[in-house]
Design goal:
This protein is mostly helical and about 210 residues long. The protein is about 65% helix and about 0% strand. It has a two-stranded antiparallel ribbon. β1 and β2 form a beta hairpin. This is Glycolipid transfer protein domain-containing protein.
Length: about 210
């Protein structure tokens, strides 16, 4: 177990390793590994502070819902496919008093698309440039499509306060900035694989527009 002052900082290697583990056979996604990776990504939002409050509390709630479902029924919530099949067979999509996992994970999937797009643009940004523009662009391409106008406006305004690329990495990574920058390309590659595979699963089950 990691110790010392760096323990609470964000680590892209952890995200990479868990997402890599999540890519299991039969073109499926292991839910436990997916959630472990997302817990590390959530740490990024926490370290950024109030600027990402428009999305961080919602993501945490969704992670907790899926974790609870998995803890109660590990067999049916082992993978994304097993979860969807279980909830479809038991007509849980129509059950008003049940927060189903498929709908919850779809929201996380959309959030992951935003995170990937933002980090992709950060990768090529000069250290001295502000990160606000690429964050706004990533948001507008992804999550903004699912948010009401009030949240979109609040989010974009909050992003104006974001620091330079160099300052952002120091804030979330501590002294391990270079380690994180080095692993960023591989992390983006495996994250893209997870996003594409998840999208494909939802397309197969015709759940891409699950309300």
């Amino acid at each position: 177990m990691a110790e010392g002052p760096e323990f609470n900082f964000f680590d892209l290697r952890t995200v990479h390793d868990y997402f890599d583990l999540a890519l299991v056979e039969n073109d499926d996604i292991n839910l436990e590994a997916y959630l472990e990776a997302y817990n590390e990504l959530y740490k990024f939002f926490q370290l950024m502070g109030s600027v990402f409050s428009f999305v961080s509390s919602d993501l945490k709630q969704k992670i907790d819902i899926l974790t609870e479902l998995k803890n109660k029924d590990d067999q049916n919530y082992m993978t994304i496919k097993s979860m969807i099949e279980y909830e479809k067979e038991n007509k849980l999509f129509e059950k008003s008093d049940f927060v189903n996992g498929a709908r919850t994970l779809l929201r996380l999937h959309r959030g992951l698309d935003f995170i990937k797009e933002f980090l992709l643009q950060l990768r090529d940004l000069p250290d001295v440039d502000k990160t606000s523009c690429c964050c706004q662009d990533a948001y507008n391409k992804t999550l903004a499509k699912y948010h009401p106008w009030v949240i979109r406006k609040t989010a974009v305004v909050a992003m104006y306060t974001m620091p330079t690329r160099e300052a952002l990495f120091k804030k979330v990574c501590g002294s391990n900035v270079q380690r994180n920058i080095d692993v960023l390309p591989k992390m983006l590659e495996v994250t893209t694989d997870v996003i594409n595979r998840t999208a494909n699963i939802y397309q197969i089950y015709d759940l891409r527009n699950l309300p």
